[in-house]
């Protein structure tokens, strides 16, 4: 497939999918929240100031309030809303670019131009924002246009709140790119929105509490700025990042404004929202009217598409983080929200990258953002050229006590990054139709993989191509074609027309198992293609699999390929021989297939230049080892602890505490660097010894908090820091990959009688074969990580035999105990209002019990006591959970009698008495009979009564509950007549009258 054709496919898929975030009309489009920007300290500050949290709230109350606040944003993370095709395109391009073995600097420079607009609200003007110096570390008495222009684009920095010089976004990108990436533009504003702030930033309960309609604010901001300032938008459309015209030139206009950055007049919701609280907009990057390919700015021919938005008090950290997304970089924090908060877990990146917690670093948070990860640097170098990184790549077999000199990651004058490529792991796949091998298209995005072979067709006879095949291919977006001499031919299961690719004819797509007559669970189908028109020719047969940037199934599998001429087979290939076909992206596989790439990156980090802020965060300098696994799509360690797209290997596996709890991942990995000097002293860290050597046979999974650790493959790789400058400006590392002996190993998880086995074998010559004996007489399994169900409880000896490519064999045996099924009963003792319960349990493993007493109260433990407040019949529920994942619920009904008490109090005002009853116990269903002692009565719970005459009365209250139990209380009540007022003719004058008379008399005398 030629390059222009592939680019046109990208364009078609880019816009055909519509980028739809939700089903709402584009005029009302919610947007996501970037969890990496959550500022715990400021959120608690504003919750307190706005009255949602008591001023003297305990630390526990603060933590609960904070978690409740960010949990709303957790549901609204970026990954669930960003147009999937954009995310997939970024990932696909990133993975392709990182295949380069050497990333060296070159003289290529890149300039971007950013349109920046400031917008406030009718109810929150930028110059009447209600902020004080205590509200934000970035407080200014005047948030002028020049302030933001300097924050964004100044070549010399900008003035901080105390007139200190702070780093601008321009300076950040100049430093990170080694002077080859210029972040330029202009700032316009302030303009005022059409609606109050909550119209745009209020949380949308129908969309996971995302901000309601910030895209409308973006449209208004840019439209108003263009109209009020006569902006020539052609100045801001100088790039074609998607190559929409398919000419290969990315440095030309494409009709979309390249980069739009908006500042609004409130503190961001990610920092408590200021005076707007949760009606403030949470900083993010998103897209406008994606289903319409962008929004055309009125009166122009340019469209608004992607944008970033930041708060009034933004520092460089927020700006460069969000613009990192604009450049195509993903978040490296846990987008499910498990990175927020001082005691949250989160992915093992922390402040080591600006695309995670590094955006908040600095003495004023966010003013000293850290650098990009090696992953980000490699991507930006491959995408833009320039001087982002100087990287050298090695394969494991190259590493025999190899000494490599490194300079700090912020130094662009010499080698500052090492990449160690690892063998691809193998994973279970579908078995061939016959024999041991088959052909597979591979799985992924933006692929054009093929296999081909040549064959001579005799003249004068009918010819046919046939094969067994099964497939799962995204309908019409992705497809397979069989081509003869590069011309697609029709077959018995091909389609003629493609709804998304008008030039694609005679193709296979969708799922084979949906075809009537498909064989087995995989849907094996007989494919046939008539080759008779090519009789007498030497032809090239090609099978080609093409994918777009998004979604997709596992691809296409072919086996038992045959070409016949008449009754004679002239070509047969079931994949058993290695030289029958030419593979270009297709794979020859068994019931295992290679997974995606894995590698290590090694870099030196210190406290200079961009990394100065690490010192303020109590991070220790040294050599970082990063592990990248392109089998993972994200860093959501809460979903897959120990695994992620890219993360830091923590040299020091000692547990750092925050109070009595295990501290956050960001705290755990502040001592992640390997080095020759003791780590910095920090609170909660009792181990500060220097750790010089990384060894992949060690356990770096951090069992205390698995989200903070990394599960690493074992290849015999070690990295030792043999020299290190005292300021970590330079270091020398020794790399060695000693062959490991083949060692079979596995672990397992028990779910009652079903056991999931996980292969952990290492060493030898990889591409293992497996033989599992489950110890119960069942069939041997050859899967890598099988699951097995046992028929009964008992003790089983499970053995795994692993054979590598050199026919080396390793065997391991482990005992698996299958417990009896859980059985439980409840014993209870009832004494009036008090109930004691215990659970009699058999079966299971280490069972735990959770009690529900049926009145809203709970407890845990094998025994429990509870006092009821009401008479009645209650169902007590015991939920028993076993460590082998059995769960059992049993119940017991109890009848409880709670003695009833009744009394009352009264207050009096002259002849009126107010009565208040106090009743406890019984069944809670009360009726009241009052006798006020003057023959008057009432049935109210808290009646008022006015007596006709003063006196002392005996008041009686009788309370009856729903079971007929009665209680009576009585008391004496004394009421009095109201006081009489003095008035009438002939009486004495009031004080006021006397005063008036005196004043009048004085006035008369002056006349």
Q: What is the typical, i.e. mean, pLDDT?
A: 89
| Spatial separation of the terminal alpha carbons | 116 Å
- Helical amount: 10-25%
Strand content: 25-35%
- Tell me, briefly, the overall form: globular
Number of strands: 57
Q: What value does the Rg take, in angstroms?
A: 37 Å
Low-confidence stretches: 1-28, 76-85, 339-343, 984-1007
Count of the domains: 6
Structural class: alpha+beta
**Tally of helical segments:** 13
The major pleated sheet works out as: 7 strands, antiparallel
Notes on the protein architecture:
It is built from 13 helices and 57 strands. It is an alpha+beta fold and 1007 residues long. The protein folds into six domains: 108-328, no CATH class; 395-422 and 596-737, no CATH class; 430-592, Sandwich (Jelly Rolls), CATH 2.60.120; 747-817, Immunoglobulins (Immunoglobulin-like); 823-896, Sandwich (Immunoglobulin-like); 901-975, Immunoglobulins (Immunoglobulin-like, Sandwich), CATH 2.60.40.10. The strands form 16 sheets. Strands 17, 19, 22, 23, 25, 26 and 28 form a seven-stranded antiparallel sheet that branches. It has a six-stranded mixed sheet with strand order 1-13-15-30-31-32. Strand 51 and strand 52 form a beta hairpin.
């Amino acid at each position: 497939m030629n390059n222009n054709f592939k680019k046109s496919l990208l364009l078609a898929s880019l816009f055909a999918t519509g980028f739809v975030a939700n089903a709402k009309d584009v005029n009302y489009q919610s947007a996501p929240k970037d969890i990496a920007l959550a500022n715990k300290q400021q959120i608690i500050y504003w919750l307190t100031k706005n009255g949602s949290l008591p001023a003297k709230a305990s630390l526990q109350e603060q933590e609960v309030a904070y978690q409740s606040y960010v949990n709303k944003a957790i549901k609204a993370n970026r990954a669930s809303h960003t147009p999937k095709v954009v995310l997939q395109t970024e990932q696909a391009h990133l993975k392709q670019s990182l295949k380069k073995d050497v990333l060296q600097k070159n003289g290529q420079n890149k300039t971007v131009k950013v349109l920046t607009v400031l917008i406030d609200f009718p109810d929150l003007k930028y110059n009447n924002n209600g902020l004080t110096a205590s509200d934000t570390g970035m407080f200014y008495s005047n948030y002028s246009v020049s302030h933001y222009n300097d924050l964004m684009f100044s070549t010399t920095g900008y003035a901080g709140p105390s007139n200190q010089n702070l780093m601008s976004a321009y300076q950040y990108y100049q430093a990170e790119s080694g002077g080859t990436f210029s972040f330029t533009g202009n700032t316009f504003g302030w303009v005022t929105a059409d609606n109050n702030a909550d119209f745009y930033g209020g949380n949308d309960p129908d969309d996971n509490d995302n901000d309601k309609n910030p895209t409308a604010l973006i449209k208004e901001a840019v439209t108003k700025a263009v109209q009020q300032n006569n902006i020539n938008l052609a100045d801001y459309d100088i790039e074609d990042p998607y190559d929409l015209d398919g000419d290969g030139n990315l440095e030309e206009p494409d009709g979309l404004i390249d980069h739009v950055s908006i500042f609004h007049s409130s503190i961001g919701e990610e920092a408590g929202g200021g005076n707007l609280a949760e009606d403030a907009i949470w900083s993010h990057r998103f897209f406008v009217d994606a289903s319409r390919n962008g929004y055309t700015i009125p009166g122009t021919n340019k469209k608004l598409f992607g944008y970033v938005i930041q708060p009034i008090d933004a520092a460089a950290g927020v700006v460069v983080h969000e613009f990192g997304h604009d450049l195509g970089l993903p978040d490296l924090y846990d987008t499910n929200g498990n990175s927020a908060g001082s005691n949250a877990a989160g992915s093992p990146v922390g402040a080591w990258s600006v695309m995670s917690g590094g955006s908040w670093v600095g003495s004023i948070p966010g003013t000293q953002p850290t650098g990009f990860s090696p992953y980000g640097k490699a991507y930006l170098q491959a995408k833009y050229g320039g001087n982002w990184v100087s990287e050298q790549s090695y394969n494991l077999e190259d590493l025999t006590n190899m000494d490599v000199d490194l300079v700090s990651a912020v130094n662009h004058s010499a080698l500052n990054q090492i990449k160690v490529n690892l063998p691809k792991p193998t994973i279970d796949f579908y078995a061939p139709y016959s024999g041991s091998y088959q052909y597979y298209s591979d799985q992924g995005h933006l692929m054009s993989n093929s296999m081909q072979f040549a064959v001579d067709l005799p003249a004068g006879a009918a010819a046919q191509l046939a094969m067994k095949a099964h497939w799962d291919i995204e309908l019409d977006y992705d497809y397979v074609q069989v081509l003869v001499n590069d011309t697609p031919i029709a077959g018995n299961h091909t389609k003629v027309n493609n709804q998304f690719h008008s030039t694609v004819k005679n193709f296979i797509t969708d799922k084979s198992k949906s075809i009537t007559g498909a064989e087995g669970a995989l849907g094996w189908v007989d494919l046939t293609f008539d080759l008779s028109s090519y009789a007498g020719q030497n032809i090239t047969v090609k099978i080609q699999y093409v994918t777009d940037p998004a979604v997709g199934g596992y691809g296409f599998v072919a086996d038992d390929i045959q070409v016949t001429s008449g009754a004679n087979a002239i070509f047969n290939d079931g994949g058993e021989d290695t030289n029958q076909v030419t593979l270009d992206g297709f794979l020859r596989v068994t019931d295992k297939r290679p997974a995606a790439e894995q590698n290590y990156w090694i870099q030196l980090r210190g406290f200079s230049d961009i990394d100065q802020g690490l010192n303020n965060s109590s991070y220790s300098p040294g050599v970082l080892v990063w592990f990248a696994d392109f089998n993972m799509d994200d860093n959501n360690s809460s979903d897959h602890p120990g695994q992620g797209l890219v993360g830091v290997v923590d040299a020091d596996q000692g547990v750092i505490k925050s109070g009595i709890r295990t501290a956050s991942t960001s705290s755990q990995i502040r001592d992640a660097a390997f080095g020759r000097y003791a780590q910095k002293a920090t609170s909660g860290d009792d181990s500060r010894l220097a750790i010089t050597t990384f060894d992949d046979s060690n356990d770096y999974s951090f069992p205390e908090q698995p989200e903070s650790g990394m599960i690493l493959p074992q290849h015999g790789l070690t990295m030792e820091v043999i020299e290190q400058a005292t300021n970590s400006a330079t270091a020398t590392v020794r790399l060695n990959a000693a062959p490991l002996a083949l060692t079979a190993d596995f672990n397992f998880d028990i779910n009652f009688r079903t056991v999931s086995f996980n292969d952990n074998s290492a060493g030898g010559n990889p591409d293992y074969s497996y033989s599992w004996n489950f110890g119960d007489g069942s069939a041997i399994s050859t899967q890598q990580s099988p699951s097995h169900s046992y028929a009964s409880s008992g003790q089983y000896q499970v053995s795994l035999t692993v054979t590598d490519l050199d026919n080396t064999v390793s065997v391991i045996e482990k005992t698996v105990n299958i417990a009896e099924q859980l059985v439980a009963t409840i014993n209870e003792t009832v004494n009036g209002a008090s109930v004691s319960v215990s659970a009699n349990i058999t079966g299971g493993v280490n069972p735990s019990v959770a009690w529900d007493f049926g009145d809203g109260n709970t407890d845990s433990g094998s025994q429990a006591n509870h006092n009821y407040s009401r008479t009645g019949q209650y169902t007590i529920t015991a939920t028993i959970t076993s460590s082998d994942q059995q769960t059992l619920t049993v119940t017991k009904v109890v009848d409880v009698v709670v003695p009833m008490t009744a009394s009352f109090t009264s207050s009096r005002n002259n002849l009126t008495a107010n009565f208040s009853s106090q009743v406890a116990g019984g069944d809670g269903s009360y009726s009241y009979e009052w006798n006020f002692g003057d023959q008057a009565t009432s049935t109210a719970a808290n009646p008022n009564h006015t007596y006709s005459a003063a006196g002392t009365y005996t008041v009686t209250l009788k309370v009856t509950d729903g079971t007929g139990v009665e209680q009576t209380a009585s008391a004496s009540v004394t009421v009095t007549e109201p006081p009489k007022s003095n008035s009438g003719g002939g009486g004495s004058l009031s004080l006021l009258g006397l005063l008036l008379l005196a004043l009048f008399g004085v006035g008369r005398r002056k006349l």
